[in-house]
Structure formats: C-alpha cells, structure tokens
C-alpha cells in the first residue's frame, strides 16, 4: 500500500518576509501540527518586486531552530553559487545542533541571473553550474562523514579535513536535491541525495521524473530515494474562501491566479479538492508535497493546512 503523502509548508522568503513573520509562521506550523517549514534561499525577489526584502535563509533557520521544539526546517533549495561548500556544510551542521536534529539541506544549481548579478555572484552556464553543484555535494558529504576527508576539484579543494562536530542526525541531515531530473541531475541525486524535489509539475511530469530518479538509483545499486513536489497552494474552508484568497494572491503577485492551472500544477480550492489533488500526486509517485504559501501573513491558511488538510491526507 502506498504511504500517504507527507505535507510541508514552503515560504518564499525573498518576498518581504520579516523576522516577525517567520516567528509567526513557525508558531502557527507547530501549533497546528505541520511537520516541516521550508524556505527558499534567495536574496532578491523573484517576482520582479525589487522593493521586497529578504533575510538570509540559513540565518533565519538558525534563529527559528532555537525557538521551536518539533518543527523540521530546511531550504528548498540553496543555490550552490551562493556559498563555499564548507560554509554551507558548517551552517547546516550548526542549525542541526541548535535544533537538536531537525534540519534538512536543499541544494541546487541556482537559476536567477538578475539576482546573481545584483549580489555579485558569478552566474555560470548550466553545464558549469552542474559542475559546481557536483563538487559541492561531494564536499558537503565529506564534512558530514566520520574521519578525515580530502578533495581537489576544478573549483574547490579541502585538505585532510575532519569537520567537527558532526551533525546531530546520523549519518547526516537529509539532503534534498531540486531540479528537473535530467540525466546528470538524476545521476548526482542517486549518488548524494536523500530526496529529489521538482517544482510545479503536472502528474505526467511527476511520473516521468520520478522514473528517471528511480532508474538512476537502480543503476547506482541503491533503493529509489523519495520523490517530492513543490506546488503553489491556495485553499479555503469553502470555495468562496478559496476564491477570496486567490483574489488576494492575484493582487499581490500582479497576475491572475487561475484555478484551472492550479488544477494542473498546484493545489487549489476547498480542503476536499486539495485532498483529491494530493492523492493524485501521491498515486503518481510523490511522497511529499511542499505547499508553497505565497500569502505568508495568512496564518489562517496555515492553520487550515495543519488542522484539516494534513489529517485528511494522512
């Protein structure tokens, strides 16, 4: 029997989410029984609203780790271009210690050229970004394993490193790779990841991408890793409340939220409609759904997810 899809909340932290907002979100998630709160790792709005602020993802996670009790926390996903892999591994390990073992690291290539240029990060062609990601994956794992580790690549090198302390979670915090499950990404996921995530997929794309990851795992002599989706979510107790939220999101984003499109690549409507959609993702092969809540100050929807949607699904 297929296990029920797990539910996590995902917040776009670069869209003016203040520290007070993060505290309120974390409190709402814990209060309503949501398993995990993830955030994007961007420094600039990806909605073209450059007046919106962004707190650092790992600084935020460390702060929330100290003031939560059960909530799992992580990034979806950290760009490999933002930090040296030793800094990233140390940040994730530090957060894991602060939280007592509740951290997950999401890692990907990065994609926003405007953001990279604005903040002074090099934005390389995709092939080279994948090269960077591969070296980062190897070094992060080297930080977390027992004993000493050396690596010399084209972009990074570490020499006789035994990074202490090791993470609380053993053998290490779960590592989530994000992307479109292309051949090289699938190979890297099979070698280094504990979960693979894809954004806004149709059901057919879930089946295709999950199959690609599973085939790569089989080739690597490994059981298939969990496959997850990140989906825009607009729900309400009833259709009228869902449509009110859709109107608010349309005004906030500057583009019309279409329930028809949400029916293809997201989760929208009533709780019952959301359950049916999540069941469809589950049947297609998704084992976790990250519900992207763009109206981050709408704590009533967070409560609705935790108190009604999660129990209905699980």
Structure description:
- It is built from 11 helices and 12 strands.
- The protein is α/β, with parallel strands linked by helices.
- The protein has a domain of 125 residues.
- The chain has an 8-stranded parallel β-barrel with strand order 1-2-3-5-8-9-10-12, surrounded by 8 helices. It has a two-stranded antiparallel sheet with strand order 6-7.
- β2, α2 and β3 form a beta-alpha-beta unit.
- α1 packs parallel to α11, α2 runs parallel beside α3 and α3 packs across α5.
- The protein is globular and about 60 Å long.
- The two termini are 13 Å apart.
- The mean pLDDT is 96.
Separate helix tally = 11
User: What global shape is seen?
Assistant: globular
- Helix and strand element order: EHEHEEHEHHEEEHEHEHHEHEH
Strand order of the largest sheet: 1-2-3-5-8-9-10-12
Main β-sheet, in a few words? 8 strands, parallel, barrel
Gyration radius, rounded: 19 Å
Q: Estimate the mean pLDDT confidence.
A: 96
Counting copies of identical and different chains, the oligomeric state is single chain
Unreliable residue stretches? none
Number of E-state strands: 12
Would you kindly provide a brief summary of this structure?
The chain is of the alpha/beta class and about 325 residues long.
List the helices and strands and how they pair.
Elements (H helix, E strand, L loop, with lengths): L5 E6 L7 H14 L3 E4 L17 H11 L4 E4 L2 E2 L5 H15 L3 E6 L4 H7 L6 H19 L4 E4 L4 E5 L13 E4 L4 H10 L2 E5 L3 H17 L7 E10 L2 H15 L5 H7 L1 E4 H14 L3 E5 L6 H15 L1
Parallel strand pairs: 1-2, 1-12, 2-3, 3-5, 4-5, 5-8, 8-9, 9-10, 10-11, 10-12
Antiparallel strand pairs: 6-7
